[in-house]
Design brief:
This is Helix-turn-helix domain-containing protein. The chain is rod-shaped and about 70 Å long. Helices cover 49% and strands 11% of the residues. By secondary structure, the chain is mainly α. The protein has a 3-stranded antiparallel β-sheet. The chain is built from 5 helices and 3 strands, in the order ααβααββα. The relative contact order is 0.11.
Length: 100
């Protein structure tokens, strides 16, 4: 994270003066506000999980055994798509199970 000094000290025109000045409470408050804004921006950019998940990923996400996942498939609770020998599950279908 690269913060420009002008962003941290907006009231200072000559940045060379900062080398000989003590840090004030206002400087610390401004710094904390800038850091919080940067953190919120970084958290907001977190990636969504993949749209399609494999069985092992679904089991980890739901914290269930392979047999339980098989039962969810058999009784129609969880839809899946088979491509070759690999089963894929839509992430939005998994969310529907978690949040009925």
């Amino acid at each position: 994270m690269n913060l420009h000094p002008k962003k941290l000290f907006p009231g200072v025109d000559n940045l060379e003066l900062l080398n000989h000045q003590p840090i004030t409470k206002r400087d610390l408050l401004n710094f904390s506000n800038v850091m919080l804004a940067e953190i919120k921006e970084m958290v907001g950019k977190q990636e969504q999980p993949a749209q399609w998940l494999k069985s092992s990923e679904v089991r980890k996400l739901l914290k269930i055994s392979p047999g339980t996942l098989q039962n969810l498939r058999i009784n129609g609770t969880l839809n899946f798509t088979r491509i070759g020998s690999i089963l894929y599950y839509k992430y939005e279908d998994i969310l529907k199970i978690l949040n009925p």
